[in-house]
Amino acid sequence: MPKSWETTRLSSVEDIFGALADLRGKNWLCRGQSRPHDSLLPSIDRDSLHSIARGEKLDMERSAVDIFRSTAHFFADPGEQAAASSDVGALLVLRHYGVPTRVLDWTASPWVAAFFAVETDDSEDGELWAFDKRAYEQRGALQWRQCPEATLDGSGDANKWDPTMRTAFTPQDPFDWFVCIFYQPGFHRQSAQQGAYSMTARFGRDHAAKIADLLEDRSTFHLYIIDAATKRDLRSALRDRHGVWRGSLYPDSAGAAETARRAAFPASNTCCSRRR
After folding, report:
1. Cβ within 8 Å of residue 246, ≥6 positions away
2. Looking at per-residue confidence, does 76 or 125 come out higher?
3. Contact in structure between 84 and 90 (CB atoms under 8 Å)
4. Cβ-based neighbours of 29, under 8 Å, separated by 6 or more
5. Using alpha carbons only, what angle is made at residue 120 by residues 79 and 212, rounded to the nearest 5 degrees?
């Protein structure tokens, strides 16, 4: 288990729903992973991409953003077009469509996070990571005093934080900040998933470690392990009680086609499943 994160195992649907209701009441942000990874490592830092140098990863991001903008310009919905006008916004959209980025998805809905924790890999436990949004807003604001170059006027004032996050794209490693943001006005997948996003200035950062370091108080972040034996029943309960299922979380043609593929060709699901 990750250092500093206290962990609770949930072994029944009712215990899980009790924990989800508690998280919603506390206004925590959540993330589900369908297999135990014991970390929150973004896709651009996993597997064969892990050891690639910062400069090359910056080039990959730039190429992905430029290609997305030029290709999707004529058919992206208004929310996606607005997001693509900034580099960070483009990365948020690309993350939703499976492109490797240094961004991780979170959600304001514990039920959505629970779905992603149990969506696949029925033989393995799921993970549900959660942290206190209010505590993050308070503690996260303090880091700009140490990184005034990340504010619009160089003052270090959190109220003048630079939303373009320009220091994330410098050739040299910048100050090692961590942010979690909502993109407004959003776009279809983000809205359906009540999505938020975490991002670091540097590559190769475990977001679980960054959250623990930033918040410090162990009562403000927690990891829940969802027992593999509950996954099938929990998927049914999430759909029946809250209308949360794959079809509701991917409200576009690509999402509907993937939902149809998974339902009609279940034998192909294992080889095609991906860690978000």
Report:
1. 115, 119, 255, 258, 259, 262
2. 125
3. yes
4. 106, 107, 108, 130, 131, 133, 136, 180, 196
5. 70
pLDDT, residue 16, reads 98
CB atoms within 10 A of CB 25: 9
CB 174 within 8 A of CB 143: no
Structure tokens belonging to residue 104: 């991780």
Tell me, what amino acid is at 234? Answer: L
Q: Helix 87-96 vs helix 54-72: angle between axes, to the nearest 10 degrees?
A: 80
pTM over 0.85: yes
Q: Which pLDDT band holds residue 241 (cuts at 50, 70, 90)? A: very high
CB-CB neighbours of 251 under 10 Å: 13
Average pLDDT of the residues in 94-103: 94
The first and second tokens of residue 144, run together, are 């700009």
Q: What letter would DSSP give residue 28?
A: E
d(CA 146, CA 21): 36
3-state SS string for 67-108? HHHHHHCCCCCHHHHHHCCCHHHHHHHHHHCCCCCCCEEEEC
CA distance 183 to 258: 25
For residues 34 and 118, is the Cβ–Cβ distance under 8 A? yes
